[in-house]
Amino acid sequence: MIEPASVPPDTTAAAAAGEGDRPLLAIRRRQLRETAIEVAVTAVALTGIAAVVLIFVFVGREALPLFTSEEARQETDLARMFLAQTWREGRAATFTWQPVSDVPKYSMIPLFVGTLKVTFVAMAVAAPVGIAAAVFASEFAPRRLREVLKPTIELLAGIPSVVIGFFALLVMATFLQDTFGFSFRLNAVVAGVALALTVVPVIFTVSEDALTAVPRAYREASLALGATRWETAFRVVLPAAAPGVLAAVVLGFGRSIGETMIVLMASGNAAITSLSLGDSVRTLPATIAAEMGEVVFGGAHYSVLFFIGVELFLFTFVLNTLATTFVRRLVRRMSGTAA
Amino acid sequence: MKRFFLALAVTVLPALASAQAVTVKGSDTMVILSQRWAENYMKANPGKRVQVTGGGSGVGIAALINGTTDVANASRAMKEAEKARVRDRYNVLPTEIPVAKDGLAVYVNESNPIEQLTLDQLRKIYAGDVTNWKDVGGPDAKIVLYSRENSSGTYVFFKDNVLKGDDFAAAAQTLPGTAAVVNATAKEKFGIGYGGAAYAKGVKEVKLVGKDGQAYLPSAENVASGKYPLARDLFVYTRGKPSGEAKAFIEFCLSPEGQAVVTTVGYFPVK
Question: How many distinct structural domains can be found in chain B?
């Protein structure tokens, strides 16, 4: 891309004066500068990847003593963390999380069940609302309304999660208890609905981008063939934007699994293993947040909390991989390139 | 350039000033009391600085062991294992100094007709053996349990003295501070919670049946005379004997003006 012809005229005069390699030096300098900038930008990009890898390595390293140190293995092991244990003679085996005790109990099952319950409620509320809002904004809203709607919903994303958690704790919990008659005031439904408030903007933004990216030709062809606007929106445009919409849902799911502050304040933090959504729940991230302050470095409890971090990593990673494979398969099926 | 140096000075100088501050971390029960002490101490001694944070007795004791605080507030006594950790790392034993007395109150909603409970009934309620208010003389409704996070000294004190080492029921919801427990119990018709007596606003305190068979409220005379069964000492801990700034602060807390602050906050003086 360096054209020798673009070398300024006085350089050629200097070349005539005896410095025959002047033009080559300028070219070499430009090449060096190009390479330097490339290296710098690559390094910065790699720093991002390096950060993720290093975080995973650090968390894994702090969780490792759970399996290698004798003291930690006496307190708990994988079997005791995932299978029901009998703690009181004559009683049924239970899944109990009670780490501060004469006999510490570290069952992961109530935490997993709690996390899944809250995420389920959050997605059940946020996905329909977010996708419907995106369909409305891209297909039906007049331009003026769309220009107001998009920033307003994105404003919801700007509210700090601690404020939403506080609002859920004081106001939403009482309202939901009066409407549904829960026996626990702070439960999975309250935390899930509050969580949905943070997930809706995520789903809305990405879905709306996916829907507007569908070519106009699809809509015009559908309407020309006699379909109504609703039929066009739900039978033609939404399926065409399906990969983007599914990616939005997966993003929302990842956000709701890791959200800590809202669940810490509004879910009641009781490690109950049950399928009822009206029961209090204790999630994985809230457990780490609540208990990290009081662990002594290097103890079994400390390693268990980092192990919970590893579990969250793996859970999100597996989920993302499954979702990406599913989306890819769906795209192949819908665009007719399936083998 | 001048603005750069000014900005640098503004950020660096406060760090130098706080090099002499006393850090106090720990009990959530004692955090308001500790903050009042710190304010009064700093007013009486300009130039001295005290930083107070809460988080729970467990957090304070862990910070003492990890070396991130000078003084730890605790609403429970340190366990032998914790004292051994301090000895292993610093070659001194922690010094325990009682600075106030507290009565651990049991709260119920103001609309609940229950007036008193025995310690045995309280134990059964929190262990999950009794789940309906009618079994202890109240209305026919499920009991909703509110507890503290396991970093709390109040949690450990309750577990040792009421549950006698048993586990809390899985259904006990854990809240981050005594104020949160009081707030939750005030809003929940069939709730029950526990915490320091000084926080009981908007809820009803339940009388507890003492060793002599009489029921007592956690008032000043009942706690001081020992008639109230859940009276406890509130402690501060230091690594080894207190020295320097920390010693001056603790002496202030134990002085007559410091103990007067204890009464205004709602706890009871150590003598």
Answer: 2
For A278, name the nearest residue in chain B, comparing CA atoms only: B171
Choose the closest CB to B59 out of A105, A282, A294.
A294
Residues B174 and B94 in one domain: no
Burial class (CB in 10 A: 0-12, 13-18, 19+), B219: middle
Q: How far is B151 from chain A (nearest CA, A)?
A: 6
Residues B174, A282: C-beta atoms closer than 8 Å: yes
Dist CA B194 CA B173 (whole Å): 12
Task: Give B80-134 pLDDT, tens digit per residue.
Answer: 888 998 998 899 999 999 999 888 999 999 999 999 999 999 999 999 899 999 9
Report the relative pairing of strands B207-209 and B215-216 from DSSP bridges. Answer: antiparallel
- Tokens 């109040």 label which residue? B154
pLDDT of the residue at B34: 94
Question: Which residues pair with residue B147 across a beta bridge?
Answer: B174
Q: Which among B85, B150, B170 has CB closest to A291?
A: B150
Contact state of A185 with B61 under an 8 Å Cβ cutoff: no
**Cα A96 from chain centroid?**
28
**CB-CB contact of A290 with A98 (8 Å):** no
Q: What is the pLDDT of residue A299?
A: 82
Residue B186 and residue B73 share a domain: no
Kindly identify which residue of chain A lies nearest to residue B192, measuring between CA atoms. Answer: A184
Q: Which of A296, A297, A304 to mutate to test the interface with B (most CBs of B within 10 A)?
A: A296
0.95 exceeded by pTM: no
The reply to whether B70 and B118 lie within a common domain is no
Alpha-carbon gap, residue A262 to A289, rounded angstroms: 11
In a domain, B3, yes or no: no
Q: What is the per-residue pLDDT across A21-79, written as a single tens digit (0 to 9) for each? A: 678 888 999 999 999 999 999 999 999 999 989 999 999 999 998 888 888 888 888 88
Contact B251, B45 (CB under 8 A): no
CA–CA dist B119, B131 (Å, integer): 16
In terms of Cβ atoms closer than 10 Å to its own Cβ (0-12, 13-18, 19+), residue B83 is middle
Measured in angstroms, the CA of B58 and the nearest CA of chain A are apart by 5
**Does residue B247 have a pLDDT over 70?**
yes
Q: Per residue in B206-223, pLDDT tens?
A: 999 988 888 888 888 888
Domain of B80?
21-101+234-265
Chain B residue with minimum CA distance to A280:
B173
Write the pLDDT tens digit of every residue in B15-28. 555 557 899 999 98
Closest alpha carbon to A98 in B194, B127, B192: B127
| Chain B contact set for A295 (CB, 8 A) | 62
Question: Which positions in chain B touch A88 (Cβ < 8 Å)?
Answer: 166
Q: B191 vs A294: CB contact, 8 Å cut-off? A: no
CATH class, A105-338 region = mainly alpha
Of all residues in chain B, the one with the smallest CA distance to A187 is B173
Q: Which residues of A touch B153 (CB under 8 A)?
A: none
- Give the pLDDT score at A3: 53
Q: Tell me which residue in A110, A186, A290 faces B173 most closely, judged by beta carbons.
A: A186
Residue B139: give its domain's CATH number: 3.40.190.10
C-alpha angle B266-B267-B269 in degrees, rounded to nearest 5 = 130
Find which of B174, B188, B190 to mutate to test the A interface (most A CBs within 10 Å of its CB): B174
What's the pLDDT tens digit per position in B125-134? 999 899 999 9
